[in-house]
Amino acid sequence: xxxxxxxxxxxxxxxFILKRPFFGVMMWTWLGLMNxxxxxxxxxxxFPFALIVFITTVIAYAFSKEPKxxxxxxxxxxxxxxxxxxxxxxxxxxxxxxxxEQWSKVWRVQLGILITLMLTNSAYRIxxxxxxxxxxxxxxxxxxxxxxxxxxxxxxxYGPDGTxxxxxxxxxxxxxxxxxLIWYLATRAKRIWIRNSLYAGIFFTLVAIVGTHSRxxxxxxxxxxxxxxxxxxxxxxxxLIAVLFLVLLPQIMPQEWWNxxxxxxxxxxxxxxxxxxxxDAWNRAIAIANSNIAGGGFRVLVYDNGVxxxxxxxxxxxxxxxxxxxxxxxxxxxxxxxxxSIRRRVKGREELRWASDLAAMIQTSMxxxxxxxxxxxxxxxxxxxxxxxxxxxxxxxxxxxxxxxRANDPRRLVPQARALEPFNGPHGEHGVATRTxxx
Length: 439
Known about the structure:
439 residues, mainly alpha, two-stranded antiparallel ribbon, 16 helices, 1% strand, globular
C-alpha cells in the first residue's frame, strides 16, 4: 500500500513540475530529506524517484520562462572550488571504487542544490522550501518523540535505512537542525492551530533527539539551545518549552540513557569502546592529512581504519586534506557572516523583519550542525547546503528590495518588478509583496 501511495504522489506531481519547475525543487527536497520510499517494503524501496523528479525539473526549467542564472556569491564560489578539489582528491583516492561511488552521490546532491539556488528566487518560494524541510524531517521528530515517550525511552530512535539519516547519531543531528526552522514557521503562522501544532512539534522533536541516545546530538541540543535564546526575539516561550522539556526528561528517559550521557565527560581510562574508536579515527585522520596534501579520498577511514570518522571535520580532513577542510570552514564562516549582514541591513524595517528572523534561525541551525557534527560524520548532508543556498537567496532578495517601503501601501512595489509572489498572504508580509531577484 505504501509503495502504491508514494508512486502515485511522485508520478502525480510530474505534470505540476512541468508547469512550475519550483514544485520539482520541493519534491526533490522532500524525497532527499524524508526519503518516504525507504519507509516502504516493496518495489518503491529502491526505485529512483528522486532521479525522475530531478530530470523532470531540469527539463521543465530549461523550457520555462524562469531566469536562467546562478546568483553570484562568494559562498557559492567557494563551494564550487571545494567540489573541484573533491573531484581531484577522488582521482588520487586510496580506495578508488568506494571513492567514486561516494563522489557520484555528492555531485548529484550538489547539482540539486544548484537548481534549488536558481529556482528559489522569491520570499514566497523561500517560505515554501522551509515548510518542505520542516515537514520532511519533522515527521521523524514528531513520530520519534511520541515513540520515545510511549516506550519509556528505552529504544533508540533511528531514521530510514539506506539514507543520510539512517543512524541514530545522524538523525539526531538532522533534528537539531530543524528545531530553529520549526520555530521560525511558528512565529510566522497566522492560524492559532498551526502555530500551536508547530510548538508541539518542537517539544516532540526535542524528545526524539534525546531518544536517539546520541551523545553528539545532546551536545547539539545544548549549543543550539543557547544560540536559540541569543538569536530569538521572543524568548519567554522558548524558555518555557525548555523548562518543560527539562522537567519531564527524568520521567521520560531511563537510567541507561543517563549512564550513557555521563560518558561524554568521562576521563580517558573510563571511555567506552565507541569513544575510543572515535579518538583513534581522529588521530588516523590527522595522520592521513599530514602524509598527503589531498587526503585519502572519500570513505578512506572506513576502508583504512575500519570505523567511521565520527566527525564532520575529521571526515573532511581525512578525505580531502587540510585544503578540503579549510574550504568547508571558509564557506561556513562566509555564510554565517552573510546571515549577520542580512540582519543588520534590515534592522528597523518592519516589511523585512521576516528575513532577519529567518537569517537568525538559519544561524542557529548551523550551530546545531556544527556542534553535533563535531561528533558525527555527516559532511555531505543535503540540508546544510540547502541552508547555505537559502542564505544566498535571502541576501539577493533583501538587496533587491526598495530602500524604504510603507507597510500599508503594497502598490509602491508593483511598478518596480515584473514578477511578484506573495509571502504570508496575498500581498506578502504585512501586506508587502516581495519581488524576485531574477525578474
